[in-house]
Design goal:
The protein is an alpha+beta fold. The chain has a domain of 105 residues: NTF2-like, domain 1 (Nuclear Transport Factor 2, Chain: A, Roll). It is built from five helices and four strands. Strands 1-2-3-4 form a four-stranded antiparallel beta sheet, with helices on one face.
């Protein structure tokens, strides 16, 4: 069988491509496995980090007076027995105006976490001498794991 120049080049290119793919796959497979392990280690988030983020998002929603967003941090079970309208009316009628909040620490055990939060606020309640004063407090929120997510526990 006699190959012309074009056929020789085509066969040579196919052979080189096959060798390149074979070598590339074996190198790539090794790299991907190592890269996947590295990515998994980097992207694996602890429950403390998840609760820290969710607790901060919850506080940010309260500060922005986004009552529906804040309400959605309660578990589906809690929302089924505590209507949004009741929650929103309670929040709108509160005696404080939240200014800023920082989740300072989160400690977890099993399916329960406690988030310590520092809250800066203006007092807007009935005590005239205190009304409009800037204050701060630290408090603890409980977060529970249920239905595949972390939810703030109602008081």
């Amino acid at each position: 069988m006699i190959f012309d120049t074009f056929q020789k080049r085509a066969v040579l290119m196919l052979a080189l491509a096959f060798i390149g793919v074979s070598v590339g796959c074996s190198e790539k497979d090794g790299k991907d496995a190592n890269e996947q392990k590295s990515v998994a280690n980097v992207t694996q988030i602890s429950k403390e980090e998840i609760v820290q983020r969710r607790a901060q998002e919850h506080m940010d929603a309260l500060i922005a007076m986004e009552w529906e967003k804040a309400y959605n941090f309660f578990s589906p079970a809690t929302r089924s027995i505590k209507p949004f309208e009741v929650y929103a009316n309670r929040m709108k009628g509160g005696s404080i105006l939240r200014k800023s909040a920082v989740v300072e620490k989160v400690e977890c055990e099993e399916d329960l976490c406690r988030a310590t939060i520092k809250l800066d606020y203006l007092y807007m309640g009935n005590i005239a001498q205190m009304r409009g004063q800037e204050m701060d407090t630290r408090f603890e929120e409980k977060w529970v794991f249920s239905d595949g997510n972390w939810w703030v526990s109602p008081k």
